[in-house]
Specification:
Number of domains: 2
Order of helices and strands: HEHEEEEEE
CATH architecture of the largest domain: Beta Barrel
Oligomer: single chain
Largest sheet: 5 strands, mixed, barrel
Helix content: 10-25%
Radius of gyration: 25 Å
């Protein structure tokens, strides 16, 4: 192997290694799955200040929206435990009491989860149209 080929081979190996490193670190940072409220609280001090995703159901009657700003405070539960959430940003249209949500942010020592992302789930079931629905009011031959 001459000098030119050796330089090319070393350069190629370095580029492939750099790309591999970026792929591995990128995947590990973005592959954070979500925790339930109970799992988050069971981790204790280790989660304070760490970026995490938490899944839960919005506790009925807990939503307090600030009408002058894009801020909302609410609580989510996993059915056993609940935590306070503070979110600033655009509030999804489907956000309401009882809705399943995923919040992404940091849990503070004060016991408040400061969310920078709020995702709501779409309804998983569609109700059938009742007899009063306009499409069910037409009869054949009328």
């Amino acid at each position: 192997m001459n000098k030119k080929q050796l330089k090319f081979a070393i350069g190629s190996v370095m580029i492939v290694a750099a790309i591999g490193y970026l792929v591995v670190t990128g995947i590990s940072k973005t592959s954070v799955y979500y925790l339930t409220v109970g799992e988050l609280l069971s981790k204790g001090d280790s989660v304070y200040g760490e970026g995490v995703r938490v899944e839960g159901k919005v506790v009925g009657g807990s939503i307090k929206k600030d009408p002058t700003a894009l801020k909302v405070d609410f609580r989510i539960t996993d059915g056993n435990k609940d935590i306070a959430i503070h979110y600033e940003g655009i509030i999804p249209d489907l956000f309401e009491n009882g809705r399943d949500v995923v919040v992404e942010g940091k849990y503070t020592r004060e016991g408040v989860f400061k969310a920078h992302t709020l995702l709501t789930s779409c309804p998983s079931k569609y109700e059938s149209a009742g007899k009063d629905h306009p499409t069910n009011q037409f009869t054949v031959g009328s």
